[in-house]
Amino acid sequence: MAIKEIVGLQYGDEGKGRASHFEAKNASIVIRSTGGCNAGHTVVANGVKYAMHLLPSSIIRPEVLSMIGPGVVADLKVLSEEIEQMRKANIQVEKSNFVISQRTHITLPHHRELDRLYEALRNNKVGTTGRGVGPTYEEKARRTNLRMIDLFLDEKDLKQKIELNLKNYNILSTNVNEQIQLGKIEAEKFLEITVEEEYNYCMKYKEIVKDFIADTYPIIEKAIEENKLIIIEGAQSFYLDNDHGDYPMTTSSNPNASGTVSGAGIGPTLVNEVIGVIKTYTSRVGNGPFITEQKNEIGDTIRELGHEYGTTTGRPRRTGWLDLVMIKHAKIPSGLTSLCVNHLDTIGNLPEIKVCIGYEYKGQTITNVPIDKENCKPIYKEFKGGWKTESATTFEELPKEAQDYIHFIEEFVGVPVKYIGVGADEKRTIVK
Ligand code: GDP
Ligand code: MG
Description:
Layout: E1 2-8, H1 16-23, E2 29-32, E3 41-45, E4 48-52, E5 65-68, E6 73-75, H2 76-88, E7 98-101, E8 105-107, H3 109-121, H4 133-141, H5 155-181, H6 195-209, E9 213-214, H7 216-225, E10 229-233, H8 257-264, E11 273-279, E12 281-284, H9 297-305, E13 318-323, H10 324-334, E14 338-342, H11 344-347, E15 352-361, E16 364-366, E17 376-384, H12 400-413, E18 417-421, E19 429-431
Helix pairs in contact: 2-6, 3-4, 3-5, 5-6
The structure holds guanosine-5'-diphosphate and magnesium ion (MG).
């Protein structure tokens, strides 16, 4: 038996989807367990590019059971469209290979409006993807939100639940719309949303999702009893974690390694491997501290080379050098057992590569991550780049400079590098 989890250690978009798709080859179940349709992952398999938000990347392997766990919040429309899109691309999405937990929370249209409303009310914008994910988690914590199981309630009971869930939005939006009218808040007016509309929304998409909704615990228990391989596919990352990341510029859930297993419904002692995914540079979507950011030609070059534009929003991602202090800091709270380093091909295009190995902080040199990251200035180590990875299929076949670079990462972080990405296609994965 083995349970492996794959988590991001930077600001997301490290290539977790790709790593998970690679691992899924031998798996019986792959579970997506946190976040919602604010996440996006791209998998290139057999020359075809698949962009996903809510479906686990394993969906393109019909022999694997892809699961959406209790910790996820799912927008019914986005999920339904993704299912249909996959089917159009001849990807099997059937009861036999896809399950949604009865406990998965539902994102409704008013959650998107709330996302926009909260951003309008604050001065320091989070820069959320505006997909209603934060407000869904908020209403989950408020204990008014709908879960997948609620789609099976009779009309009267479901409408009652929707009414309770909508109440907060209706009070707030009426109030804020008045302020907009008076010129006190600058924003587009917020939509009036009725119980009837959200009920119809639920019924429309229930048709597409209903067959997949199930109790996930017995399925996981059986797989564990049968010694099957289970992969838990993380979303977002350690530094976007609401407890351990750059609060308040974080996501509204706990995508750290512990939150990720919790969201799947698997206890920490059952997890054999925690694979932390990083890339050879850093990118960030949205606002918040970014110590190694390069708002210059280098950053632009990295963005172009790495195609750093959001899967969900198409926004250009902020880019900068790899910050190993951040990765090392995430080692203990993540319980890392290995690293997957992606984009070794991408960074090799640069003649000189920098890696952050410490910070200047209030007159001192430090190698930990303080809570006030904005007071840190990076200290870099330089590497000679200009390497090519195209012909390499093993670690030994990589150019010496690229090998040294990987060895340095391992030594600095104190965790072995197990996988290396040398291209977007999952076949371009080197197992070290
Ligand atoms: P996720 O959110 O962590 O799953 O990552 P995304 O899929 O959002 O972003 C990673 C992007 O980098 C995707 O477009 C991948 O196809 C691409 N990618 C991942 N690993 C590599 C790699 O080793 N080399 C190259 N060139 N591209 C990669
Ligand atoms: Mg992504």
